[in-house]
Fold PHP domain-containing protein.
Amino acid sequence: MIIDFHTHVKLAKRVDFDIEFFKEVILNAREAGLTAIAMTEHFNTKNYYEIYEQLDEHFDYIDDYYDVDGFKVFTGMEIDVYETGHILFIGHKERLLQIRRLLDFHTDKESFISLPNLLDLGEHHDLLMIGAHPLRETTPLHHHDPALLKRFHAFDLNGKDMHEHGIEEMMEDVLSFAAQLDIPVVCGSDSHHPIHIGVVKNVFEKDFSTAQEIREAIKGNQYKRFIAPNLHTKINAAKIVKKKMKEALTV
């Protein structure tokens, strides 16, 4: 299985979910060599529940993923915490939706859930928990108690961060940070546009159908990370196109 662990299927938080845009994301993911993605849309994006309503109308849901003509879209969610930081949850959609309903009154910065409480929820629902872009200046995780950080199953070597700060530099820093806590590192593109997706890949030795299987494979180091040589080119192109599309939406 070849998967990207951090993807978005909407152009931006404030826009509606568009099934045609989603299909374009999957098409580009296939062309980039992926066989699966983790759909980690922001928990406080506009009309969050509508994403699942539309996907349920178009695709079968099996174990922990939508089957999009043989391409696996694992369900997930990116959640802000009060103390600063973004957390990726991946697992069965009903468990994710249960947590999302609990967060209905925690969608603003002043009311974000605390990291300890969020980790408790993730563990209770047996989800794969990944610390997103742990060294990003605006939403770091390094300031948290190491005892909390050690509860993550992996940290995110983030495509956007490698683009901004240099591939080798960011890779070295994230791997060093994770090694201090004995936590694995997986790749996530953090794509918000189809062009961006596939700039990073995680290649597993086997195919999986559940987040629990993936979690065990990560724990067993049964995967390899790959960074596309055209990462900067693809992300630059995606940024330009995304900006133009967002400007058109505001007209």
